[in-house]
Design goal:
3-stranded antiparallel β-sheet, about 150 residues, 1 helix, single chain, Immunoglobulin-like, mainly beta
C-alpha cells in the first residue's frame, strides 16, 4: 500500500533541517482591511486642455475635458496682453472653433484657467507664403525637354 503524506517523512537530521528552512522561508499570506472611503475624492486627472490649429484654415480648435465642477475661463490674449476673447465655460466638456482670420498678424496666447489650474498656449498668425515656379522665357525647341510629336 502506498500512502501520500502532506508533509514528507523526516528521514534524518538533514530532512528535518531542509523541511524547517523551506517552511520558514516561504512567504506568508495576510489580508489587509481598507478603512477608507470606497470612492476617490477627486479624479486623478480632472482637467485636460487641447489647443491645436485646424489644417488649411485660420481656425484654432480648443477642447476641454473638465471632470471637476469648476468653471473654466477661456481667454485669447494679444501681444499687448489685451484680451481679444474672454468667456467662461462650465460643464464636463467644451469644444470650440475660433476663427482668427480677422485678427492682425502677431503672437497670441490662449489661456484656459480655473480657480487652481492654468494652461497657456501661444500661437502665431503669419501671412501666407506661397511658393511657385514661374517660367519667364520660353526655352528653345532644340534644348527643350518636352517630347516632340
Amino acid at each position: 500500500m502506498h500512502a501520500t503524506y502532506a508533509f514528507p517523512k523526516p528521514r534524518g537530521f538533514i530532512g528535518c533541517l531542509l523541511f524547517a528552512s523551506i517552511s520558514l522561508a516561504s512567504p506568508s499570506l495576510s489580508a489587509q482591511t481598507f478603512i477608507g472611503r470606497d470612492y476617490l475624492a477627486e479624479f486623478p486627472i480632472d482637467f485636460q486642455a487641447f489647443v491645436f490649429p485646424a489644417q488649411k484654415k485660420s481656425v484654432i480648435n480648443i477642447r476641454i475635458e473638465n471632470r471637476s465642477s469648476r468653471t473654466v475661463r477661456i481667454r485669447l490674449i494679444n501681444e499687448e496682453q489685451k484680451a481679444v476673447y474672454d468667456e467662461y465655460a462650465s460643464g464636463p466638456e467644451f469644444a470650440g472653433r475660433f476663427d482668427v482670420s480677422a485678427l492682425p498678424y502677431g503672437t497670441y496666447t490662449v489661456e484656459l484657467s480655473t480657480s487652481s489650474l492654468q494652461h497657456r498656449q501661444e500661437f502665431q498668425i503669419m501671412p501666407r507664403q506661397t511658393e511657385r515656379v514661374v517660367l519667364l522665357t520660353r526655352p528653345a525647341e532644340q534644348k527643350s525637354l518636352l517630347a516632340r510629336q
